[in-house]
Specification:
single chain, 812 residues, mainly alpha, Alkaline Phosphatase, subunit A, 2 domains, eight-stranded mixed sheet, 59% helix, globular
Length: 812
Amino acid sequence: MMAKIVGLLVLQLIAILTFSAGFFPQKSVLKGDAEFLYHPEAHQHITPRFEKLVLVVIDALRADYLFQDEMSQFRFVHELLNKGNAWGYTAYSNPPTVTLPRLKGIATGSTPNFLDAILNVAGDDSSSSLEDQDSWLRQFRVREQTINFFGDDTWLKLFPRHFFNEVDGTSSFFVSDFEEVDYNVSRHLPQQLASQNTWDVMILHYLGLDHIGHKGGAFSTFMRPKHREMDSVIEQIYSSVDEDTLICVMGDHGMNDIGNHGGSSAGETSSGMVFISKKLENYDKPAAQQHEKLPIETKSEDYKYLTRVNQIDLVPTLATLFNFPIPKNSIGVLIPDFLRLFSPHEALVKLKDNYQQILSAAGQQHKQLDGVKAHIEHMRDLQEDLAKTATNYNYKLLSIGFVLLFLVTLKVGALSNKELNSSIALHLLVAVSLLLSFSTFGSSFVEEEHQLWWWSSVGLVGLSFVKAPRRAVSIFLILAGLRFIRGWNNSGQKYIYEHTMSEILKRHYHWQWVLNAVTILAVPLGRRNQTLRSNLTGFSLSAVCLVYKAAWNVVNGEQVPAWLQKVLLEILPDAAKSADPIEALKTQLVPMARLFFGAALGLVLLELLLHRLNRQSDGLLEKIHSTITTILIFQTSSTNIPQFLVFQIIAPLIESLWRRLWGSNVTALMTIGLVLQHLTFFQFGSTNSIATVNLTNAYNGVSENYNIHVVGFLMCVGNFAPAIYWSTACLKILYTRKPQYNKWQLFAASRLPALLFYCIFGCFLLGSCVIQRYHLFIWSVFSPKLCYYVSWNLFMHAVVGWVLEGLVVVLS
């Protein structure tokens, strides 16, 4: 049976990867350089309105960070906006709102490909290069003008080194740093501003604000000082350039209140954009800005401040102001306010050229229109239509992937019916699978999937009560624990609740850290056969974990009680003696994390050695599960740590109930585990949006010279920590008592239920993605869900469920 299941697993993975390759294809683009389309000779007589461009990209600069009084500290920018030396806009960023696809849009004026959101983290990927695609950078190069670049090295994925005269790239994924990463950009400013005759375009991309968001959220205590730092950079540039230099300050995307991005919420898609020049005060300010005094006191729920434009409108606007052809693949519409800088005839030429270019991209014939407003409105309509139809699906790969998965599902279903004896537990598994599967056809169900897992878990508990009413106390405790977990975080995408347990504990951080300490130090007590050695080593590892989590929170400006800070300084005397204890603690984080990982690995190897020597009755996983749990806690946000205490309490109750009600039925246990994996994944604050992918713990123990594969693995462990706990806990329960048949038969039987679930669910999800491929929410709801489905299969099912857990069984 094992060989059959492995073969079916491989075929299933091939099927979903083939489908994904067809669903997320590389976009076909027009090659070559653009030319003026409307009366080319007329453009030869138009003088560029600016000679130099300084583009300042502040990563994750949400619109309210620039314009709203309560949030913004950009005081110098506000002065310029009020005087008319700066024109401000809220720039809509098409999802996915991550850096690489947004930079593609900023450079070319085209809409992003969802695949770019995945390539965004592939450090050595070259498939996203724009070397052969038209962009405003290429147009400057064609005109033999010089471009200097300093900042986020994502630009160097997009453009080859020879595009730039001077370059200094900084890593975009080392989110633990938000000071040095910006200093490495700003240190070039004095020399660059003193030698302006050596460049025509200077691009600066600052990452610190985005990193602060990832680590501490949109309201982090570090956010305001970072605003002031960026404001001073803008003031430094403005004071050093003349009126023929245009400064454009913008965010590549926004962020949600958690500090993440990638989805389609208003905060993530609304970035700030400001055009600054001494020349602009000679013209009327944009209409929306004329009657506003910056900063704006009113807070906008949809983050719309001043005039709203599309972020890709930057491209035709720059082309107009610098008098070069609009890049071929652009679907941007020039910002009409800037036509004021031209004579009526010149403005008409530029407007009609943009109109011709968008008509060409849409493959439509020219229509006779009168007036600026009519042209702009028609171009906006064309832009909206083009944005919806930007992707060409590979239907051959979609068909192969779907048909293969369907055939695999039939085979897995037949095998399950045979091997799992068509039991009640199997019927329950199929029922849960179908319930979740039908939900894939509704966008709201996908966004609120956690609700379905909650009711599935309640249903299983209710069924247990029907089968064994005398076990009411245990059942009540399990239900209470699950309800406690359910109220911990905001787990969906449609509704936000203010009074979650995590928010309450943040306000009462003393209690939070008492719970954290109890949870971490109680982990070794969960082991059945405790010895003095196991307790000493377990508590030592837990102590290192607690010290690190406390130190990390102190360094990152989170609230930590005074008693714990005192303990920290006693344990780390070098930090106590330092003139700057927080900076000293910061230098200790990487060595401390590496010490923890080294000690954890050492404990696992020690338990393995003793297990092989003594051949004790309890399984290897029983011995190392407390170490695994401590590692998972180490990779978990401090606000979620107490949930593991609930896990530790209800796990033995679930085991006892399972043995009593199901007679050690493997399918029943694996179904329970599957439901708990998904329930707790969502209750840790995760959703089906890319925006909730948490990078906070992906850099534990990682220095600046990091390995993207290590970071990727740590990121997966951090995001799937609760799911890993329940996956390993169920396997531990399964192997606690000597099985009636050999360990490989048991392992094979335990893998089949998950494979059946992922096959059934996958067939419906893939079918839904095909049917909904032109749905309004295809890129914001269904595509991210497909990505999560692939992640669950590759990481949780294949890597954790088969490779890592299989390795433990081999060594047992």
